[in-house]
Fold this sequence. Notes:
With 283 residues, the protein is α/β, with parallel strands linked by helices. It has 14 helices and ten strands. The model has no long low-confidence stretch (mean pLDDT 95). This is Glycosyl transferase family 1 domain-containing protein.
Amino acid sequence: MAIAFSGHFNDLTFVSNDFVSANKKMGWLHGALYEYVLISDGYLNLYKKIKNLIVLVSDGQKEVLTYHNYVKLNVNKLYNPTFMENQKLNVEEVKNLRSNYGPYLLMVARFSYPHKDHYTVINALEILNKKFNKYPNLVFVGTGPEEEKVKKFVEQKSNNIASKIFFLGNQTDMKKYYAGATMLVHASVTGEGLPTVMIEALANDLPMVVTDSKVGPREILGDNKFGLLSEVENPDDMAEKINELLSNSTKYEEYKNTSKLRLEDFKPHKIEIQLEHIIENLI
């Protein structure tokens, strides 16, 4: 078996044109089928040769296969696993984070607009302060090409807002940041694949408010079953959802508990069994 694991034109072409001699072929997509078809018909032409595909999200798949009914594909959905649950947690470091940043909202993302929308989260924090009288801090972990622009955006805010936002750059031990946070907040405009940070938040029983961008967040959270979805590029709606969790301790605890249930679908052993089944049924 040969797997085009990056899911890009280069490795898909390499596998589909038999550069590696293999009885079976597989293409591994890092999102939904329709996302790639939107980018280029070239993907669909390569998929036809490979036949077997793994997707992270099934959103829009029926539509693609219906309107391209001449394409016969064997498509399976398989989530990325998380191993964070088994990582050791330094309790003292968590205490230090809470001491340094107080109750904080956490966003873990590369600074790359519109794939990651830090601006909506910043504006939501401002609304949370002014409209709902809630004053958590906001911690950004990550770097990227948009970072300096986001920092300048923060500088334009009043000192009451700017002083509550912290840029911590890239970090290697993320577990302590999840453990110390009050909530995960995450925003995107153009969509995701299957956001790893949301799965890691589940592994740390961390309630979350995430924009309902295509695709990924709804796949993980369902219809607000395992966390709250907010409208894309709508800081007012995000602020309302954050306030809902901060104001309702019963709902907050409910999402902490449901995180454990949803995490079961992302555990390595379960995904290993599913992958074995997929491999056994390749065409």
